[in-house]
Design brief:
Blueprint (H helix, E strand, L loop, with lengths): L7 E7 L2 H15 L4 E7 L4 H10 L6 E2 L9 H19 L3 E5 L3 H12 L4 E4 L14 H11 L2 E4 L2 H9 L7 E3 L3 H9 L8 H9 L2 E6 L8 H16 L3 E6 L4 H10 L6 E4 L4 H10 L2 E4 L4 H7 L4 E3 L8 H5 L2 E3 L4 H13 L1 H8 L10 H12 L14
Parallel strand pairs: 1-2, 1-4, 2-3, 4-5, 5-6, 6-7, 8-9, 8-11, 9-10, 11-12, 12-13
Length: 387
């Protein structure tokens, strides 16, 4: 405990846009507690995309490592974050650090805390594909963070079960739901701006598909297959359009340019800020993505999700019927998209399925679990989606 009124000092560490989104409700909850002293470190592993989320949720970091550099790789990020955190942890000496998810910042933050013998709480713990390089490096970041963590905030029962199979003490696992749903509900209440070109896509077309792609394992031929499949879909469905915020990765942009540039009813945009993005998602007919977080957000909005991956660490959506894992084969992608466009029953079955990821109360459960860990209150009831 810290000396100041016996408050628990908690240091939250994050560095990317998805981390910031999911940590924002947790930080808001921490700051509302009189028994908690909250500190925030951003590594800025992704600078531009991080900053707009920090501004959206009015997060005021106490420390900014500013590690992002042109051409950086995993070695650079790992070393920079580890060195940057050393002095902060030695000065602050928090009672607990919180990390979220599966980024290099997450793993390195947990490792730095371990070196300083500070307990670690891992938000969104227990997601697994059991394939070392899929997704890369996220799968091993999660596994290694689990071994370093002391408290595990599993979003679902399936995630808890994965942790139990790995020998984690059940008394240190809390099923909380995912705070990404908290963030989504809070953000949808805020005003937003849509680019006129995007607004035109909704005005001129009856059904709009939201597409996002960025995974390393899909670069090259897999992305070409996806884009070619969608060209065929547009040819067969004149009432359909695609909004595609294109990732800044030059390899992704090269594939997009070669296949989709100039194609009618394909609206290519720069990456969207969080508020316009979720409001686009709210208005679309379906979502195609190889992202992780969107697999959680879209079901909360009643949007069917076709996942452009061979494996996923988020199988709950498929189990509950809100998502389908379809890979990147050209024919398979075309068939699955056409199925939802042509079969209203199949579409409604996915659109009305139960969201397995949260109810908007995950942050509250996480902080209650932290207090329980320090002997300051009872454990929260586990989150369970409606059956």
């Amino acid at each position: 405990m810290t000396e100041e009124g016996n408050k628990i000092k908690i240091l939250s560490i994050f560095g990317t846009r998805p981390e910031a989104i999911k940590m924002a409700p947790v930080i808001r909850e921490l700051e509302s507690r009189p028994d908690v002293e909250s500190r925030v470190v951003v590594t800025a592993q992704h600078r531009e995309m991080l900053d707009q989320v920090v501004d959206t949720f009015n997060i005021k970091p106490d420390y900014d490592l500013e590690v992002m550099r042109p051409g950086q790789d995993l070695f650079d990020v790992t070393v920079s974050v580890l060195k940057g955190l050393k002095g902060i942890l030695e000065v602050e000496r928090p009672d607990l650090i919180l990390v979220q998810g599966d980024t290099t910042t997450t793993f390195t933050g947990a490792l730095a805390a371990f070196y300083c013998q500070i307990p670690v709480g891992h938000i969104e713990a227990g997601l697994r594909t059991y394939q070392k390089y899929a997704p890369f490096p996220e799968e091993m970041n999660r596994v290694l963070t689990t071994r370093l963590a002391d408290i595990h905030f599993a979003p679902t029962d399936r995630s808890r079960d994965a942790l139990l199979k790995e020998g984690i003490n059940p008394g240190n696992i809390f099923v909380t739901g995912n705070p990404v749903i908290d963030a989504l509900y809070q953000a949808l209440e805020q005003p937003f701006y849509l680019d006129p070109e995007i607004s035109r896509a909704f005005r001129d077309n009856k059904r709009v598909i939201l597409l996002t792609t960025h995974r390393r394992e899909n670069l090259g031929a897999p992305l070409q297959d996806v884009y070619m499949a969608l060209r065929e879909v547009l040819f067969k469905h004149p009432d359909v359009a695609i909004i595609f915020p294109v990732h800044k990765n030059p390899a992704v942009r090269s594939e997009v340019k070669s296949v989709l540039h100039g194609v009618e009813r394909v609206y290519l945009t720069e990456p969207l800020d969080y508020l316009p993005f979720i409001n686009v998602m709210k208005r679309t007919y379906m979502v195609l993505t190889d992202s992780g977080g969107i697999q959680e957000e879209a079901p909360a909005l009643g949007k069917p999700v076709l996942v452009l991956r061979e494996v996923t660490e988020r199988p709950e959506a498929a189990a509950f019927g809100t998502a389908r894992l379809i890979g990147t084969d050209c024919r398979k992608v075309e068939d699955e998209v056409n199925r939802l466009l042509n079969d209203e029953g199949a579409y409604q079955e996915m659109a009305n399925a139960v969201n397995p990821y949260g109810d908007g109360m995950a942050a509250s459960r996480i902080i209650q679990a932290v207090c329980c860990y320090f002997g300051l209150g009872p454990a929260p009831a586990d989150f369970s989606p409606e059956q």
